[in-house]
Amino acid sequence: MDQLPKTMRGFRLEAYHQPYVYHTDLPVPSPRPGEVLLRVKAAGFCHSEMVHYENNFPGGKVPVIPGHENVGIVMAIGEGVTEFKIGDRVGTTLFRQTCGDCDVCRSGTTNLCDTRENAGINSDGGFAEYMRADVNWTVSLPDEMQFVTAAPLMCAGSTIYNSIIRAGKPKGSIIAIVGTGGLGYLGVQFAKSMGYRVVAVETRQPPTELLLSLPPHLAPDLIINPRDGIESALASISSSFDSAPGVAAAIVSTDPLEAFSFATCIMAKQATMVVVGQPRDPIPFSCNDIIFKDMIIVAGMPSLKPRLKEMVDLVVSAGVQVEVRSYPFEKVAELIKDYHDPGLKGRLVLMVE
User: Would you tell me the Gene Ontology cellular component terms (predicted)?
Assistant: First the structure.
């Protein structure tokens, strides 16, 4: 730490619904035991950033440095860390400092720990030159993976990859990715690479154009526009997949309640819905769907470390395409403005250095 600066540039959310405030004299943090200090190279702007900005993220606080899709270079090592060394290229996800003692931690599902830190939400994140990273949630990045494309994988990629696995369906099953923006676009490619038959559900033209540009081994088997209606969707699924009565799983990676309703309607009996989208209002499930279709509902959450590493390796081995729009560090306000662009393709990334 002696060679590191004492202060750094960074942005903070200091009041909800207000622009991020730029600082040039924020203190450079020191890594705690079990942590490393990163020189942040790139930080993704995730939907959860906007949820927290609007004061809708449980347990969030201000002031805080935003950013939880972070990649960079290890600059200092905390006590007890042996996995990484100074100079390593790494990526780190949302979580830090889980307790290790509660029921969920002892069961291995530490991403559900009530006392965890959430980078960019209740603990400082990566919209600054340096940040702390918990080694339990940090993975090495392949040399061939650029920082700008690696950043969105740390939440968007890990969440949709984990959601496909959490659906619990065997390879060859029909999986619908409902909403194919930056997160769902990755999900389509992951599911195809993992051996599933994939239905992409999308209403917007820009994401559909991206799907149509994918190489055959990553492209969806079928694209459905919900505006064509339920009957048309079910007929397309049946004709495309050997008279299948619906999909075996629907991963809903968008917020509108209509997306959840549509997903329910195209699901076969005993299908699984994975909830990734974060609508403000309660999701209106019918007891008839749950009981008489034996519908299963599970949560989509960011991956634990072993699965995060699997996902990073899959991106390289399968040639998964990560569509990004990057911004210089000082253009964070422009990035946030573009987040609301209905024609947005892919993910937004702030280049910290």
Answer: cytoplasm
